[in-house]
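Input sequence (358 aa), recorded before submission:
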Amino acid sequence: MTQRPIIPVLSIVLALVTGARASDTPAAASTPQIMRRVFDWQVAHPWSSQHPLNDKHGTRGWVQGAFLTGVMEAYRATNDAAYLDYARATAKANGWQLGPREEHADDHIVGQTYLELHQIAPASGQLDSTRAILDKLVANPKPGREIWWWCDALYMSPPTLAKFSQITKDPRYIATMDRLYWDTHAAFYDRDERLFYRDKRYLASADGKKVFWSRGNGWILAGLARLLDVLPADHPSRVRYVGLYREMATRLVDLQPADGLWRSNLLHPENQHGEASGSAFFCYALAWGLNRGILRDPASRAAVDRSWTALLACVDADGRLGWVQPIGFAPGAYDATTWQEYGAGAFLAAGSQVMQLR
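Predicted structure, token format:
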């Protein structure tokens, strides 16, 4: 199928060349409608439709869980009941159960949506599975670099623990999260580049080129935004989390290509089209920082405007967000036809924050 961007190519080029804000483009007035179109297309095309014989993730797994985080962000921004209805239906179909791997961070992320739904309409039994699994995590302490050994984990599990601590008023969950987080940080954060390695396989490279994966760092920056939204204002580590967020945000603004989309391999963007999922996570997190007053600089605002304009051009007339790198663990191939729930979820989250910019 021919890919047709939602907004005219001329307006995109004009915005990128002139530095115009996304709010100055024709599409800005219909951001909620574009978000809804992406949501509707994604719901009609689940991951299992691509992999009917290998749907190991299911609606309790991280792929759907990441999509749901964006769905709930979209609901809060637009008050469109379709998002809430979808999240509630998924939670009910899942029996409010987390994924089957009790210690694995990927199987914790769906709990973030359960917790948010519980806050809207609490009912008995909704959080029993989440509590049982998080209690085991608290009771069996392990080093963060062992249990959260890949950078994606910092989006999947820390906000779940922090949200649960917020709801239950029990500080043990947030204390466990804090200890695990900073041990993972110590193992995989490159202080010179101000970016995270995906895991220990990338700490050293044979050719001397450091590899920093866009979506991996997108998980982390977006995860910091979601974590800081629920971390108590007086928590002893809050200043440290904010510092890490600002440090990474500044670096990523510096690394943004002129066309608005970050490449899959952040330090080596040559001869590659921009990747939508990592870019959408960065757009969300940067816009979040501007909306919270954590970022105030014009460069961050310009980066958000460029990235959102470019992301709109990745959406075809049917609502499919293309240029999303498929499931992986390092920079890889993607094109205008590749898509995935986590990409759509990141887009919804980004749009939700862009809507709130002034």
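Checked by second reader. Residues 22 and 305 are 5 Å apart (CA to CA).
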